[in-house]
Amino acid sequence: MNQKLNEIFGKAIFAIRQFPLVLLMALSASICLMFIAEENFRTSEKVFTLTKLMLVSCLGISLMFGLKILSQRIRKQILLELGGILFLIGFYFLLPKLQKDFTEVYAFLLIPTFVLSHLFVSFASFFRQKTEMHFWQYNKNLFINIVLTVIFTGVLTGGVELAIVAVDKLFDFNFNDKIYLRVFYLLAIFGSSFIFLLFNEKGLEYLEKEGNYPIVLKFFTQYILIPLLIIYVVILYFYSAKILINWELPRGWVSYLVLAYSIVGILAILLVHPLKENSAKSWVKMFSKIFYFTLIPLLILLFTAIFTRILEYGYTEPRYFVVLLSVWLAIVVFYFIINKNASIKFIPTSLFVFGLFALIFPFLNTFSVAKRSQENQLIKILNENKLLDNKQKIDFSRRVVDSTATEIANKFEFLGKRNETESLLKLIDIKKQEDLAKEINQSTNSYSLYYIVKDQFSNIKKTDKSTSDYQRLELISNQQIVDVSSYDYVVYFNRYNHSAKTIGNDTFEIFDRITDEEPQFKVILNSKEEADFSSLIKDLKTKYKGKIGQINLPEMAMEGDLEKYHLKISLGNLIIEKHKNNPSSTIDFENAYLLIKKK
């Protein structure tokens, strides 16, 4: 027993010495999430800074692991790790300073960057050295270690959480509820990283050593994954036949199905790579040989579907990535069909190059292409509908169908999020549309610019076909500073975070069931006495029924009484959303304050 404990302890010390930066990044991410939880996930400058640090730290986990593995091959650890640290610092400052500027655009930077960091790990130390089987063994061991890490981390986290619950309930410790989140973040990020490093032992030397093909992996690939892929490709072929028979264009989402089949199929091919020439099932060999040929008709379907959307609506970042993946997939298919000595290393390295191209290549990266495309689409719509006057300014008084007004507003919103204020301001008469010019310059809200552009059109022809499927009203309080001088306590809460608060021997609970039919909004004292604030929601909903866009109000507040306390609830905003196919509205709020005064 002591020998086993000493062995585990020795491996733990070795992991700390070998991968200190990986563990430091994991610890940093865990601590940041703990502090964010302490702030109740509320919107603030501090929370946003912590969120950015957390994202960069999570990126650093895979990056630093990849650089460490590479340094074990080329022996330049300090230089590589210093370069990695500088990259992470630069990436942090690439993120916006203010939360209002953190739009969906940054998702198209963050997600590909995380994917690239993991792709880098897969081939980092195999540029020039070792055989293809070493490369396969390395990635196979990584894959198995990731699966084992998920299992071990899940069991460990669940076990520790249950132990805390048991101690809390059995011995009346009355732990703060946030202890469960703290433990989860620590074990899910730092704990999983540490367990993964323990499985990897010495790193590269252990990962690339040859071993027997795992029986479980063999069974999963042969009897589950490949049969499912065969069924899936048959479905796609039947859909292709349906398109040809009906002579219709493919639906847009089929491109995602083809990509899913292709990527999972490539993963299956990689998993069975050593079995192709061994005593594997004959149908596994057959699948390995014909897989890339089965993709050729699907590539035609894929390109037809995606370019149908692009020709009609132009490029956006997601469509750009779909096109890029489609081109990469076509290259991979023909590489393996034509090249008899094709190497599986080509798959991750080529995808990494394509991803890097999408993010940093001048003029042709995803952000540049999307902005240019949507600008051109906007000008095209304006010209086709004769909405530009002699000065090339939009004439909002001309008659236009509602679908066109919606499309123009969508383009303004898209470009506003991407800070294309100069090109948008050129299209409007600033003297006539002061509010619009101000909104374009600020671009503080993802919805406000859309609605203010649409509201500029004074002569809209409504059509049943083009009526919007989605309506959104946001009521915003102009009261930026809440006066609390006459109150004893202030509690911040939002729609999804309003845990019970205790003052002395009294516990306050905020109960909300904000439905369209009968909204309920109450403050309950000690599970017995309650103050009803439901009419605050009801009155606002009734007063502004049928309105859309943004409406600023001096204040949205209501006062109420309990036996020992006087209360006031102040809403920062109230959002009412409705979809065409759903008769009920969805009601939400993002921030609010409960003010409490003892009588």
General description of the model:
About 60% of the residues lie in helices and about 10% in strands. It is α+β, with helices and mostly antiparallel strands and about 600 residues long. The strands form four sheets. It has a four-stranded mixed sheet with strand order 9-3-12-13. It has a four-stranded antiparallel sheet with strand order 4-14-11-10, with no helix packed on it. Strands 5-6-7-8 form a four-stranded antiparallel sheet. Strand 5 and strand 6 form a beta hairpin. The longest helix is centred in the N-terminal third of the chain and has 40 residues, at about 130-170.
The tally of beta strands, per DSSP, is 14
Largest sheet: 4 strands, mixed
Which structural category do the helix and sheet elements fall into?
A: alpha+beta
**Mean pLDDT reading:** 85
Q: Helix share of residues? A: 55-70%
Low-confidence stretches: none
Can you tell me the overall shape? globular
Kindly list the characteristics that best describe this protein.
599 residues, alpha+beta, four-stranded mixed beta sheet, four-stranded antiparallel beta sheet, 19 helices, 59% helix, 12% strand, globular
What is this entry, summarized?
The protein is an alpha+beta fold and 599 residues long. It has helices spanning 2-18, 20-38, 45-74, 77-94, 107-123, 132-171, 178-200, 204-207, 215-246, 254-271, 282-313, 317-338, 346-360, 366-384, 402-417, 421-425, 434-442, 448-456, 534-543; strands at residues 400-401, 460-461, 470-477, 489-493, 501-503, 506-513, 520-525, 529-532, 549-553, 557-561, 565-571, 573-579, 585-588, 592-598.
